[in-house]
Amino acid sequence: MATPGFAGRILLVNLTKKEIGELDSARYEPFGGGHGTAAAIFWELCVAPGGWDLQDAFDPRNAVALMTGPLAGTGLSYAGRTSVSGMSPQSWPVNWFCHSNFGGSFAPMLKLAGWDGVVVVGRADAPVYINIVDDRVTLEDARELWGLTTWKAQEEIWRRTSVHYGREWQELGQGQTLQRPAIVTIGPAGENMTRVAALVHGGGSGAGQGGFGGVFGSKNLKAVAVLGTGTVKVADPKAVRDSREWWETRWPVSAEFPGPAGIVHSSCMGCRGRNCHNRNTAYGRDSDNCAEAGWYAVAPPAKPTPQDVQLRSADIVQQLGLNAMETCFMGPMAFPVPPDFPVQPSVPAYTALGWYLKKMYDLGVIGPGTKFDTSPLPMQDYERGEFADIYGLAIANRIGIGDLLAEGTVRFAEKLGRLPEDFDTLLRLTAWGYQDHWSMPAVEWCYGNLMDARDINNHDMSLGPKPGLECADFVKILAAGTARNDPFWFDYSWQGERAYQTGIYSEAKARFVAWRQHYATYYKESALFCDWAFSNLYNRNSPDGRGYTPEAEPRFLNAVTGRNHTFEDGLEIGRRAWNMKRAIFVMQGRHRKMEKFAGYTYRPGASYCGFALELPVFDGSRWDWVNCRELYLEDRGVEQWKTHFYNTEGWDPATGYPQRRTLEELELKPVADTLQSAGRLGSPP
Amino acid sequence: MAGKTKTDKTGVSRREFMTGGGAALAGGALAGGALGIPLPAEGAQKPGAYPLSTGYLVYDSRRCSGCQSCMLTCSLVHDGEAGASSSRIQIARNVFDPYPQDIQIFVCRQCPEPLCVKNCPTGACHVSAENGQVRMIAADRCIGCKTCIDSCPFVPHRTVFRVSAGKATKCDLCADTPYFSKKGGPAGSQACVEVCPSGALRLVRELPPQKDNAGYDRDLTAPAVKS
């Protein structure tokens, strides 16, 4: 019998063989659900059997997993996201095993249908979509859906069932329902196997990072539709409801994503009110109010792109199924450059594809007189809204220069012959080719990017000055929230010996990053708590400043599962899944020598972004907030930090390979055996 | 995936009979006849045959965020399991429909003349004097005949059939909630109202106007007035 919160089954679809099977999800519970479980399944299906080099995400053998967490569909808030995992075509230079996730109602609906996840391997010989109605799973012909936008595809799937969803009770599956199927689909960007293609669910819930839309396209998989009429069993129903009330009462929601006046917000299923979406704007139906809404922002804030143009552009991104953060222009990170800023005065914080394209045009690298024809893009109309339409269509359909742009920013730059030089100046990308995302000066973000496979996109550290609070007291609150109580985890000293002793190159910082990766791997990517709410070490709405981490997470999970896990138990699950990921990375070729930041990271100007620049710093005697906007890294320090980090994780500091002892204490002995057979097991300490 | 659409004896579907969440009929009143369309069920009751409920769930479909927390919480506190199909309040959402039609909310109206109660052959569906005259179904007396479901004049019907239990249920304003740690019912708390993050649900004491749906789907911007 499955643990409460879990349905007990994971759907396994082989599109090549047209086989529909299932996996027992109880086997994977030590990995927590979601991304952790997907990593374990990926290891079993793709790595352990051997026989391929794990380099091409478009290989039919790539297993892409849509996974739920134990809290999905229980009514608990900020906990119903769908995890997406698999080898990622966007990652560079290796298509690392990667993850993304999206909100909406897909995960709760999948759970209500009796499934913890869907794993897809193989490639269909013609376009299909997977249709799930409770126990009944079918492969449906999607040839007539191919070429449709993400929105049209969903409406067409609803239409072809001839059911009046939401109007009359329907007898479907094992029950009755008024709900319509939850659908995640790709648009033309995915069908054409671009590396910047998202999965889109509803109007604007999307999984962009990783380029999993292209993986769907490579498999001839247009969509997955699910309708569930069942229930999610929980261990303690009263505790589930009461824990939500406890949380909402003790830590009231503050105004979030208020957006322009007059917007009526909407939320993912179960959300207590983050209000990331909207219902009533003229454009942008249900579009996310974050990245997509600012996708087409081409002018500095002093001359903002008109809102209606931005919202209509947001629709383009959603409908074509494009990764907004990768393909945006100046995007949501388009902060003004202070006039006294030392370097890169013409480079925004976010150098995404739309901006970089224009920069290359202005520099004469592409366009008239070069070997790179920019057609069909009307570059002279770059600042007109119509440009966004053509730009999006060109990428999604690989038309003209869109074929190069469809490879993503880093590969576009590579094709232009601009690497590695542009990494020092014009391209603020992570080591694996993702857009940097205010990862400095709060360096745990950029370190996480380096050790994971993508922009980790963790927004949970609020480190700036707090009214009425001394800095020393603030770091104590943060340290208590981690349950490890080391205030030096939050020392952002970045110059001199202090940086090496307790600051950004210290062992303390390595331990903090390890903690954060373990936390995120379990709580955010496997249990699927929403990044907008978790973790929460400090909370301005609480009388003592304490956030709800580490209390809320185990309280919610235990109410659902009845397992009585501690917060530390969860971190250990995260560490197990994180090490499983590490083993996959290593089998894909990851090595200490590869884990190097892009050039700009080591240069003045690396930390530019518009806010969150004041960080706690310990000067040897006292704590204070210091503006760290000029923080950049030095190679010697990063190498020291890496050694600390590998040692903290139980990985060989010479190679970055996990050591047998580490894997065995996590009950991953077969993984250690496989690594050893491949000559990639870390040497003993 | 094939769905079944229920039709009444005349062959007119519920959807054809009434659109917009019960715009024409109110609890078996004869408004439908005035519109020249068939009545929902035989034997509409004369006003006053049943004591009025002392509480009514009203909502503001323009404020709703579509999170469906109310649904999952409803089933949780009543049944101990979270579900959409078993929820006594239904939020149907189509993000591609224009605002405000993108969200439809369906709640039991606690009809003044409840046909579900009148037509129940076992008395399971009853007006509960112990619980503020709320219309509710006693599970131990329900035989799963679906008469209450067929009797409900609204589209979609507000009585709910729990397939797993083989019994019907309906909104009782949380009177019978074994998994709710608070006292429910018209005089107590309603789990859906409490969990709603948008202030889009509210309990009111006075019978809403029954002429159309406006009495239930109302502007809740103004603060609640305690009665």
Model description:
The complex is a heterodimer of chains A (about 675) and B (about 230). Helices cover about 30% and strands about 10% of the residues of chain A. Chain A has a six-stranded mixed sheet, sandwiched between helices. A six-stranded mixed sheet of chain A has the order 8-7-14-11-12-13. Chain A is α+β, with helices and mostly antiparallel strands. In chain A, a hairpin with a 4-residue loop joins strand 18 and strand 19. Chain A folds into three domains: about 10-225, Aldehyde Ferredoxin Oxidoreductase,  A, domain 1 (4-Layer Sandwich), CATH 3.60.9.10; about 265-415, Aldehyde Ferredoxin Oxidoreductase Protein, subunit A, domain 2; about 445-675, Aldehyde Ferredoxin Oxidoreductase Protein, subunit A, domain 3. By secondary structure, chain B is α+β, with helices and mostly antiparallel strands. Chain B has a single domain, classed as Alpha-Beta Plaits (2-Layer Sandwich), CATH 3.30.70.20. Helices cover about 15% and strands about 15% of the residues of chain B. Chain B has a two-stranded antiparallel sheet. In chain B, strand 7 (about 160) and strand 8 (about 165-170) form a beta hairpin. The longest helix of chain B has 11 residues, at about 70-80. Chain B starts with 13 loop residues before the first helix and ends in a 23-residue tail after the last strand. The model of chain B is unreliable at about 1-45 (pLDDT under 50). The chains are: A alpha+beta (about 675), B alpha+beta (about 230). At the A-B interface, helix 2, helix 3, strand 9, strand 10 and strand 15 of A face helix 3, strand 2, strand 3, strand 4 and helix 6 of B.
